[in-house]
Design goal:
By secondary structure, the protein is α+β, with helices and mostly antiparallel strands. Helix content is about 45%, strand content about 25%. The protein has four domains: about 160 residues, PAS domain (Beta-Lactamase), CATH 3.30.450; about 120 residues, PAS domain (Beta-Lactamase), CATH 3.30.450.20; about 110 residues, Beta-Lactamase (2-Layer Sandwich), CATH 3.30.450; about 160 residues, Alpha-Beta Plaits (2-Layer Sandwich). Strand 13 and strand 14 form a beta hairpin. About 30% of the residues are buried.
Length: about 575
């Protein structure tokens, strides 16, 4: 269960304990309301009984407030009061209706939500506030002895998460639109991701490459000679850069600069290698004309002396960092290194002065406008001339793409939760931790009942919506320390850490109940789904995750064979 749900339950318990005083308050409110008075003496009446509740809800930055059955404000925390005061310039007081402090359209919106909550519904929704911030809100009834006595509102600011999602979509567009060839290989050398430029260069369709081995595309002899040795290096954890001539189906013979970059998993072992290819044919053909190279190169080319000061630079430096050529010639290359990378840059400088050639050194450098760019340096020192020749590339976008590629390699693209491979890696890690510290751990397998009927009746778009809603629901009900993932199709799995069988039973029951409450709109009306669930507890005999997964899967199928919409423990 997540922290927000835990807070909600704690508050509801304390509210129920204060019910007698609240009932007395409601009796007082009615005659005073008829007289038009707003002096309800709430603090004097409830202060002693709900001081613990006030202390709790004032300790969070989340917006928390409560209304009675007449939809009048009963209680709100300091964060709520401050928010409304800042954005609407209104002091919220007990007894107010939403029409007293919200714009008309929003007041109607909340009135409808309160009506639904007073009928017993719990609503979870994203909402844009009057301050244009994005909030994840939970609105639900407050009960005493099965009687609804009011409504609670909990809203959390998710603006930053919303912005990160926007940024993720932006970087996905970068990968798709970059003229460089970008691909991702797994340890079996099969393609997992290819961008449009890669497909165009080799005149292939995406379905022709995904899942196939790179050897099939490059040809056996060519692959053995040029690609296989570099890939072995990359999967050993090294960043590999190399150049080669290759004949492309449409463009003909081209000179390509290739980078193999290992993407490490949580155990720091490379599980995938990102391929980034730049067509440098024009640069190769211009090698005999140094000035021409300086003019047309997209790379940053420079010469600096053994004192570190620049002697010559091409225009790409100014385009990339914003400094003019004259300004840069007054600086040492170490002067533009960011403080975080100054020590490593100094170490590289010492190696260059000893005559060592440096390939692929990466550091962050300062732009004239104060921003930071990631640069990759390939430098050749000339001891006789006491100067260093360098080719430098702006790899800022590549750094961003590497992070996104790692995210894509570990998550299910439809639901955003962990994919099967990543889930199993996490499960193995948690199992080792449980065995080491002697803590308990549970594995849950979950399957949507009759999911094929949903797809057949309502279409795959509705089926996809069901999967996404189910994942959101499970994340809401599980703790932040628990792990959840999609095993494939309509099958999901969860790892409950530091738990016992009784707690796991409660969690499973809650998952079944909450998923059954989901309502998905379709052209034929609302639909709901149920799930079958199987779980097992870790025992001392479990030395790998496989037997736990097998027991949980067996329990799942027993639940399905027993009629579905239930759970079984093995």
């Amino acid at each position: 269960m997540n922290s927000q749900s835990t807070t909600i339950q704690t508050l509801q318990v304390q509210l129920a304990e204060a019910n007698e005083k609240i009932s007395q308050l409601e009796a007082m409110l009615q005659p005073l309301s008829q007289q038009g008075s707003l002096e309800y003496r709430i603090q004097n009446t409830l202060l002693e009984d709900i001081s613990n509740l006030l202390s709790l809800i004032n300790s969070t930055e989340d917006l928390i407030w409560f209304v009675d059955r007449n939809k009048r404000m009963l209680l709100s925390n300091e964060a709520t009061l401050a928010s409304f005061k800042k954005e609407l310039e209104i002091e919220i007081e007990p007894g107010m209706l939403t029409t007293d402090f919200l714009p008309e359209e929003q007041a109607r919106y909340y009135d409808q939500i309160f009506e639904a909550a007073l009928r017993g519904k719990t609503l979870r929704l994203n909402h844009t506030g009057t301050n244009n911030k994005e909030y994840a809100a939970t609105i639900q009834p407050v009960k005493k002895n099965d009687e609804i006595i009011g409504v609670s509102v909990f809203a959390r600011d998710i603006t930053e998460i919303h912005l990160l999602q926007e940024e993720l979509r932006y970087h996905e567009q970068i990968i798709a639109s970059t003229p460089n060839l970008v691909a991702l290989l797994d340890k079996d050398l099969n393609y997992k991701i290819v961008n449009d430029a890669y497909l165009t260069a080799f005149d292939k369709k995406r379905e022709d490459l995904l899942g196939t081995n790179i050897c099939n595309l490059m040809g056996g002899k060519h692959f053995k000679e040029y690609f296989e040795p570099h890939l072995k290096e990359a999967f050993s954890g090294k960043i590999v850069d190399f150049d080669l001539w290759i004949s492309l189906p449409i463009q003909g013979r081209r000179f390509l600069s290739v980078t193999y970059h290992p993407l490490r998993s949580q155990n720091l072992k490379p599980k995938h290698v990102a391929i980034i290819v730049r067509d440098n044919t024009d640069l190769k053909q211009a090698e005999s004309d140094r000035q021409r190279i300086f003019e047309v190169s997209l790379d940053m080319l420079c010469v600096f002396g053994f004192d570190g000061h620049f002697k010559d630079l091409n225009p790409s430096w100014s385009r990339t960092l914003g400094w003019s050529t004259e300004e840069l010639k007054e600086k040492s290359w170490l002067d533009i290194a960011s403080p975080e990378d100054r020590d490593s840059s100094l170490a590289i400088s010492k190696r260059l002065l000893q005559g060592e050639r440096i390939i692929g050194f990466e550091n962050r450098c300062l732009c004239k406008d104060g921003s930071i760019k990631w640069l990759a340096w390939s430098s050749y020192p000339d001891l006789e001339q006491q100067q260093v020749f360098s080719t430098v590339r702006d790899i800022t976008n590549r750094k961003r793409m590497e992070e996104e590629l790692l995210q894509l390699a570990t998550t299910d693209p439809l639901t955003g939760t962990s994919n099967r491979r990543h889930f199993i890696e996490q499960a193995e890690t948690e199992l080792k931790r449980s065995r080491r510290y002697g803590s308990q751990m549970a594995i849950i397998m979950l399957d949507i009942d009759h999911f094929k009927n949903v797809n057949d009746t309502h279409g795959h778009s509705i089926g996809d919506e069901v999967l996404k809603r189910l994942v959101d629901c499970c994340h809401q009900e599980l703790r932040t320390t628990d792990i959840f993932g999609r095993f494939g199709g309509e099958e999901f799995a969860a790892i409950l850490v530091e738990t016992n069988k009784e707690s796991t039973l409660r969690t499973c029951k809650r998952l079944i109940e909450q998923i059954a409450k989901l309502k998905i709109r379709t052209a034929k009306g609302q639909i709901s789904v149920t799930v079958s669930l199987g779980f097992t507890m870790h025992s001392a005999d479990d030395i790998s995750i496989d037997p736990l997964l097998k027991r949980a899967d067996d329990a799942l199928y027993k639940a399905k064979n027993a009629g579905r919409n239930q759970m079984v423990c093995i």
